[in-house]
Specification:
The complex is a heterodimer of chains A (about 325) and B (about 260).
Chain A: E1 2-6, E2 8-9, E3 12-13, H1 15-30, E4 35-41, E5 58-63, H2 72-86, E6 90-94, H3 97-110, E7 114-118, E8 120-124, E9 127-134, E10 139-145, E11 150-154, E12 170-175, E13 186-191, E14 205-209, H4 219-228, E15 232-236, H5 238-242, E16 263-267, H6 273-279, E17 284-289, E18 302-305, H7 308-324
Parallel strand pairs in A: 1-4, 1-6, 4-5, 5-12, 6-11, 7-11, 14-15, 14-16, 16-17, 17-18
Antiparallel strand pairs in A: 2-3, 8-9, 9-10
Chain B: E1 2-7, E2 9-11, E3 19-20, E4 25-26, E5 33-35, H1 37-53, E6 56-63, H2 67-77, E7 81-86, H3 95-109, E8 115-119, H4 130-138, E9 142-152, E10 155-162, E11 165-172, E12 175-179, H5 191-199, E13 204-206, E14 221-227, E15 236-238, H6 242-256
Parallel strand pairs in B: 1-6, 1-8, 6-7, 7-13, 8-12, 9-12
Antiparallel strand pairs in B: 2-5, 3-4, 9-10, 10-11
Classes of the chains: A alpha/beta (about 325), B alpha/beta (about 260).
């Protein structure tokens, strides 16, 4: 059986978890087994139905009032007791902030290794094999697991969702015991900036600016563009971040985030090797840069040699026309 | 405060990665190795905490003898002591193996800790696993991907980065914290620091001394293949009037790529 951890944020199952469930189902079919899911929290039973359209045959709901706030220590303990009981062969998480925090803690509890941030999964001789980027994407490593269960986190935005079906499944509710002293590290509150933008790792379109943006105020040009493009987020190169023009949360590249959006738009970004590593797995890339020799053009599907300050306003108008259709 | 910082020697981010397909390892020749950037934030934070609260900062690395250079850099930044946990094995990409070595060393050699600091991931293996695994093996709280850290007595608060927001997390010491870019601005080594670091001896602890036999520290991940990512083909590059260029780009996005 393949077990998928479903992450809840703002009272909903995250899309990246449903992507993992979809991929879990594809592997489960090959292994002639089923995919099941687990929800952890308090008063969350109603969310189980969100997993059935993506083919979970069963959803375990682990409830305890001490689980109303996330803590890696208590969540891993809850999940550990389930794993001991239902013995999955494979456990999958999204490589989201929570998945990357929780999965290694559970792996250490189970005494097994973990593959982080995988971009491809396959089955060979009944076992899981995964590909993960290293050096932020400058190389790919294929690994398999010697222990059991086999554990991996999967990169958001890479694995396609299955077409949802109207299906029902079994909900198995379990009250788990969490000693209060096991809640180590407690989330007191979630601080969200006013008008916070979508995270670059989760966006369908990333609109990025580099040194060519010339100053922090010019990022407003990109924000305007982002405001008309659905599910888009603002990215930045390291030089723009290090110059203090925009917060490091937006940085794409080797000391920032690695992204695989449907479309990556690079404005005034030369394409340093550490930046290219972080965005080359985007499905489509376009670039606007004054310098015809800029490395970014070597990876772009469509490039404009020109002044971004002249191109972007026209681009906005043209996009508006198309999006209005 | 007795603070331990765990650091790794990695190729710098400007490096082009070449692969030896036979040994399934990267070619180290010609690479410039540095202290992993996220670890640098961890070292800096430890120094600031010591400056505010007193105490001692010890930097620890798991790796080959070459990691001594990385530890020297940390000493030059101002760390009080350094220890090398000598591991001759090539990169295994197995976070649990490293975490077990560190956890064992903490139990046997550094048991008087108040805080264990890490980078959120090494730049290279990109595992982002070791801090959480060490926390589990030692039964400690963990806060990963931290951009702000405050410690008062034996209580701490940290801001942890999640998608589009921050989590404010409270915890009791001792704890495992992993640093994210933005936590601080690391200092440069001073000449005085470099001179002092040269004179410091760095004790070397072997895996045998930690009680490991070869076969109980074997990696549990098998590397099947190491390869370069698929090369992207350069597409169409145009030079045109801005309005015309924008029209052509949108036509490409809408009609050819079908993404808008």
């Amino acid at each position: 059986m393949i077990l998928v951890f479903l992450e809840i944020r703002e009272g909903k199952v995250k899309k990246s978890s449903l992507e993992v469930l979809s991929e879990g189902k594809r592997r489960a079919d090959e292994l002639k087994t089923e995919v099941q899911a687990v929800l952890i929290g308090h008063n969350i039973e109603g969310l189980a139905s969100e997993a059935f359209p993506y083919r979970a045959s069963k959803v375990y709901v682990l409830e305890n009032s001490l689980l109303s706030h996330y803590s890696a220590a208590s969540f891993s303990q809850a999940m550990h007791s389930l794993v001991e009981e239902v013995k999955p062969e494979i456990i999958l998480f999204s490589a989201s902030a929570m998945g990357k925090d929780l999965a290694p803690r559970l792996a250490a509890k189970l005494g097994v290794s973990l593959a982080t941030d995988c971009i491809q999964t396959a089955c060979r001789a009944g076992k899981l094999e995964v590909i993960r980027p290293i050096f932020a994407g400058k190389a790919f490593v294929t690994v398999s697991f010697k222990g059991s269960p086999q554990m991996a986190t999967l990169r958001p935005n890479v694995f396609p969702l299955l077409e949802p079906e109207t299906k029902q499944g079994e909900v198995v509710k379990k009250d788990v015991v969490i000693p209060e002293d096991q809640v180590k590290g407690k989330v007191e509150e979630i601080l969200r900036e006013e008008g916070a933008e979508l995270d670059v790792t989760e966006a369908d379109v990333v609109i990025s600016g580099g040194r060519g943006m010339k100053g922090p105020e010019n990022f407003d040009l990109l924000r305007e563009l982002s405001s008309i493009v659905p599910h888009s987020a603002i990215g930045a190169s390291r030089s723009a971040v290090d110059a203090g023009w925009i917060d490091h949360q937006h940085q794409v590249g080797q000391t920032g985030k690695t992204v695989s959006p449907n479309l990556y738009m690079a404005f005034g970004i030369s394409g340093a090797i550490q930046h290219l590593a972080g965005m080359s797995s985007s499905k489509h890339i376009i670039a606007v840069n004054k310098d015809p020799e800029a490395s970014i053009f070597k990876v772009a599907d469509f490039g404009i040699v020109g002044d971004l300050f002249q191109v972007v306003p026209h681009l906005k108008e043209e996009l508006k026309k198309v999006l209005a259709e | 405060m007795n603070i331990f910082v765990f650091v790794k020697r990695v190729p710098d981010t400007e490096s082009k990665i070449r692969i030896n397909h036979e040994t399934k390892t990267i070619v180290e020749e010609g690479l410039n190795f540095v202290l992993s950037p996220y670890d640098e934030y961890a070292v800096e934070e430890a120094l600031r905490l010591r400056e505010a609260n007193g105490g001692k900062v010890t930097v620890v690395s798991v790796g080959k003898e070459e990691a001594l250079t990385t530890l020297k850099k940390c000493l030059a930044m101002g760390a009080d002591e350094a220890v090398l946990l000598k591991d001759e094995s090539p990169e295994t990409y197995d976070g649990l193996r490293t975490a077990r070595i560190i956890a064992r060393a903490v139990e046997q050699k550094f048991s008087d800790h108040n805080l264990l600091l890490f980078g959120k991931q090494s730049v290279g293996a990109d595992n982002a696993q070791v801090p959480a695994m060490v926390a589990e093996l030692l039964g400690l709280p963990q806060v990963n991907v931290v951009t702000k850290l405050e410690v008062k007595g034996n209580q701490g608060t940290a801001h942890r980065e999640i998608e589009g927001a921050l989590e404010k997390v409270s915890f009791s010491l001792s704890a495992v914290i992993s640093a994210q870019k933005g936590l601080n601005e690391p200092r440069y080594e001073t000449l005085k620091g470099i001179m002092a670091a040269k004179k410091k001896e760095i004790p070397v602890v072997t895996l045998e001394e930690l009680g490991f036999k070869d076969d109980d520290i074997l990696p549990m991940l098998e590397v099947i293949k190491l390869e370069s990512p698929p090369q992207r083909q350069a597409g169409k590059i145009i030079e045109d009037e801005p309005q015309e260029a924008a029209k052509k780009l949108v036509a490409f996005l809408h009609e050819e790529a079908k993404v808008i």
